[in-house]
Write a structure and sequence with these properties.
The complex is a heterodimer.
Chain A: E1 3-9, E2 15-21, H1 28-34, E3 56-59, H2 71-79, E4 87-89, E5 102-106
Parallel strand pairs in A: 1-5
Antiparallel strand pairs in A: 1-2, 3-4, 3-5
Chain B: E1 2-3, E2 6-9, H1 13-24, E3 29-33, H2 41-44, E4 50-51, E5 60-61, H3 62-73, E6 79-82, E7 86-91, E8 97-101, E9 106-109, E10 111-114, E11 120-123, E12 153-157, H4 161-170, E13 176-181, H5 190-201, E14 206-209, E15 211-218, E16 222-229, E17 236-240, E18 243-246, E19 250-253, E20 264-265, E21 268-270, E22 284-286, E23 291-292, H6 300-318, H7 329-332, E24 334-335, E25 341-342
Parallel strand pairs in B: 1-9, 2-3, 2-10, 3-6, 10-22, 12-13, 12-18, 13-14, 21-23
Antiparallel strand pairs in B: 4-5, 7-8, 8-9, 11-19, 15-16, 16-17, 20-21, 24-25
Classes of the chains: A alpha+beta, B alpha/beta.
């Protein structure tokens, strides 16, 4: 087993503790979609290229263990709405064992 | 009125390939797309990015794929209505359809194919209360005619290329230009960033960074925006202005198609995948990323497959009495509507004496 536990708070405020695989090259956006924690068409719209910000999440823990933001991610967050200091694009954060116990909240859908 | 056999909504890869498949069956196509150029997401979002799962292309740039699809569709003279959004679908007494765009252009066809991908690209609207009430009353998300702003006061928000470029352009047109951006860093082309900096130093652009427009004021039209500095509600200023132009890029929305009476599930259109990708409205098909069915994969290659199947069904609908069998292009060649013909070279038969 190479799963880790992640707590995801959905847009309605409900917390879900889920298992995420570390061996499938998956990112947070894909994990959220696979558990259908946000409706299809409202998350991961660009497919994970850091080009739409529909997978914006607020990271509530493990901030020091997250990868640095790339130029593309910074650029996209610059144009996004509801951005906070702990905002990240879920598609840019890959599931790794160090992230076991991670907590995050999905940002509101922007219109 | 534009008349065609198959009206395709969406000029992305799936829509473009439909032109080719329809052309083999001697059916003419016309495409409508909200973007000003064909190619859909491939052109708008990631033209310079590689795709690795197009069969036969180990690697192809999205922009090049579109170029090739346009080339492949060319002999079949597709018509285009670009930069215009399909707004309404009206079924006629004879079972055909009239689709009207937001500019009022009418398109008449017996078959409508929705190849709309994620929907039409529309400007992203900042989450400001009441902003909808000020639309076209001082708030514009797209600059259609810069002359509207001559000798007016304008506040632009955003930190990307379009915010920078329009600030530079309007600096010479408007009476006053303010550019509001959440951060100090701008991510546009270096030239544009430097130009804005220069114009700001000589007072032609009023640069307001680490700030956000959080509220709008006015009775029947906009007369001021509320700008919050550094996220502090205690640090707000009211800035009088005639126009507020938020420029935060584009995002795809299903849009008016969602109101056409089609069965929608998970923000996509349900189709009959056991047969021909027809929707619940006979004569209206949905193919590519815009449709859904059990096991659906949003891949370009799946859109191509769906286009080929759908065209066979459309042919039967348009020609109910004609018999037809699918032909291989290698065997029968391609006869373009432009008079061109492509065919495999004939074997040379020559006896050796």
């Amino acid at each position: 087993m190479s799963d880790i536990k992640i707590t995801i708070i959905d847009r309605e405020g409900e917390a879900h503790v889920i298992d995420a695989p570390t061996d499938m090259n998956m990112n947070l956006m894909e994990v959220i979609r696979s558990y259908e924690l946000a409706p299809e068409g409202t998350i991961g719209i660009c497919g994970g290229m850091a080009m739409c910000a529909s997978c914006q999440c607020y990271m509530l823990s493990h901030e020091h263990l997250l990868p640095e933001k790339s130029y593309e991610e910074e650029d996209m967050l610059d144009q996004a709405f509801f951005v906070e200091d702990n905002s990240r694009l879920g598609c840019q954060i890959f599931i790794k064992k160090e992230l076991n116990g991670l907590e995050l909240k999905i940002a509101p859908e922007s219109t | 009125m534009i008349k065609t056999d198959i009206l395709i909504i969406g000029a992305g890869p799936t829509g473009l390939f439909t032109v080719f498949e329809a052309g083999l069956l001697k059916l003419k196509c016309h495409l409508i797309d909200a973007l000003p150029q064909p190619g859909g997401q491939c052109s708008e979002i990631y033209p310079k990015k590689p795709i690795y799962d197009i069969p036969g292309f180990p690697e192809v740039l999205a922009g090049d794929l579109v170029k090739n699809l346009m080339e492949q569709a060319k002999p079949f003279n597709p018509g285009f209505t670009l930069g215009d959004r399909a707004e309404t679908l009206d079924k006629q007494d004879d079972g055909s359809f009239i689709v009207t765009t937001s500019r009022g252009i009418k398109h008449h066809a017996p078959i409508v194919v929705i190849a709309g991908g994620l929907g039409s690209f529309e400007p992203r609207k900042p989450p400001i209360a009441d902003i909808a009430n000020f639309e076209d009353k001082g708030v514009e998300y797209i600059i259609k005619d810069p002359e509207v702003y001559r000798d007016k006061r304008v506040v632009i928000a955003g930190g990307g290329d379009s915010a920078l470029d329009w600030s530079i352009f309007l600096a010479d047109v408007a009476k006053e230009v303010s550019l509001v951006h959440r951060r100090k860093d701008f991510r546009g082309a270096l030239d544009s960033v430097e130009k804005v900096e220069e114009l700001s130093k000589i007072g032609k652009i009023n640069l307001i960074t680490e700030a956000e427009v959080v509220d709008l004021q006015g009775d029947d039209k906009l007369n001021a925006v509320v700008i919050r500095h550094k996220g502090q509600a205690s640090d707000e200023e009211i800035k009088e202005t005639d126009h507020f132009i938020p420029l935060f890029g584009l995002s795809p929305k299903l849009g008016p198609i969602g109101d056409w009476g089609l069965e929608i599930e998970k923000n996509a259109i349900k189709v009959d995948n056991s047969y021909d990708y027809q929707t619940n409205i006979p004569g209206v098909y949905a193919i590519g990323d815009v449709n859904t069915y059990p096991g659906k994969l949003k891949l370009i290659l799946c859109g191509f497959h769906e286009a080929a199947i759908m065209c066979q069904s459309a042919y039967q609908k348009i020609n109910p009495d004609k018999k037809y069998v699918m032909k291989y292009t290698t065997v029968s060649g391609i006869d373009g509507f432009d008079g061109s013909r492509k065919e495999a070279k004939r074997e040379v038969v020559k006896s050796i004496n």
